[in-house]
Amino acid sequence: MATQTIEQFFTGKSLEIPAYQRDYAWTTSNIDDLFEDIEEAMELGGGHYLGTFILSQAGKMAPVRVVDGQQRLTTLTMLLDALVDAVDELPIKEHYRSTYITHPVYGPKFTVLGSNKTFFSALLNDELPEPDSDGQQRLLVAYQWIRQRISAIKEHQGQEAIKNWLLSISHLEVLEFTEANEGKAIRMFQSVNDRGVPLAKMDIAKSLLIYYSNRFLDGELDSMIADKFGEAFRSFSKLKKLAAEPGYQIRLINRDPFREDNVLRYHYFAFNGEQHDVESGADYNATSETVLESFLKPALKAMRGDKERLARFISDYVSDLEVFFKGLLGLTEGVRTNRGLYLLLVVQDISATLYPLIIRLFTSKMLEVQVPSYLNYSMLELIELADLRVFKLQGTNPQADMAALMRAFSHLTTEEIAERLINFCQRFMPSAKFESRLAGEEMFRNPGLARVLLEAESAARVAVGLPQLEIGDLVEINTAGLTIEHILPQEPSFGVRLYGFRTEEAYLEHIHLLGNLAPLEKRINSACNNCSAENKMRDQKLYRSSQFRLIQGLAAKNASANPAFSKDAILARSIEIAKFSVKKWPLTEADLAE
């Protein structure tokens, strides 16, 4: 353990970021904070403490692996590279480049291993690489921002400022811990960070598991744990990027707060702890903190006296966690080829409470299994049914029921899972209630509305001999911008009595009913504004120009009607779509009867 300057820290080392480490995570705000620290050090004329680095080096000539501090070192390397490029004097440029970037004999001073190795190298060589993961995109944004800031310094303050920056960075101070055994280094990382520095729970879980492997199993599982967590981090980076692509956005995953810790929590509900005499998924209100404090730590502590049992638990848990992350990645990839998955994850945006179930069904290769005794539903369709009826239309979130299902999952057949899901729907949203709610309650802001209307649109297409909406059509609709149209406008500029309403209050009570709502292209919806139904249906640039059959059908049916739409039409159409929905998402054979 020693305090030293950055220049001393880099001297004589070839630093590596192990492949198991998480992807680069810094934003431009983090980079700005680093710039402020350096500027403060320059103003004060002394060294500034940059923090602690925990390293592992197996032998004197071996590469030095960075266990903790990879985000700061990656950013520092990009900053130093940009500064060195900005220096005009060749001797100074060569000195700093050999010190921080590439040694003329030993090669790169800092290397990112794994899938980011080639990308990071190309980035420093100004080859403009194309990112293929969320972490690589952040690396690119960070590097471009750093170069812009250095360019501004050079332009406004000149060469002396660039050299002063390099000198000041060289004098920054760090505390270095080096341990020959990488498992022990990771234990040290956990010890340091458990004293107040906030970490993602996934990082703490990895460190905790390696600690128990290193301390009680002589390090036999250290590499396995590190490798599988590395795979989990890479899977998350890929799925996060895929879920953000236009036309394929999965809203839950695409939200900024959705991180690896969310998947760690989902896995807590899906993991079969019974085989190890530990209870997983018992707390249906569990957070990622709960996973650590109330499940993982007590389980490991209870097993530390039994090496064989501890090794079996760690191996099973870590392997299953990796499979679980890859399962979510597989689902995210699947929306590009599987229409049912696209509708469920992209359009319907299923509840987070159902993610443990759908991921476990996917990893168990059960998602497409059909159950003849339950209307030949597939598991995927049953999740769709439960989400739409209960979580969307009912607007409730029965976490305890789903947690109980996951605890029993390993003992259940597909028929038994189907039975539980059907009974779940019968209890919270039976068909009579489902139909009544769709027909008689406001639906405009219901999260299940888009799914209902797009299925009605597909049925309208099939009715006139056209194919149903396929993935390509749905992607095009989402990319262009799907909106929900009010056939009778929300703010009428006309008398409402003509349309069957005695008062304006009565009008406002009906406009958000399902029968007054339809899918419509964003551009046409904007053009409709608060036009009357007659104008919408007769103007060639409005409803008649839409690609939606539901809209075209309305225009054709009411082309010469006056009024073109009314209170009675809203109520009749609400009932029609409600009855269609019961048949589309039935619970029993009776729901399919005419």
UniProtKB/TrEMBL annotation:
Residues 6-209 form the GmrSD restriction endonucleases N-terminal domain. Residues 480-579 form the GmrSD restriction endonucleases C-terminal domain. This is DUF262 domain-containing protein.
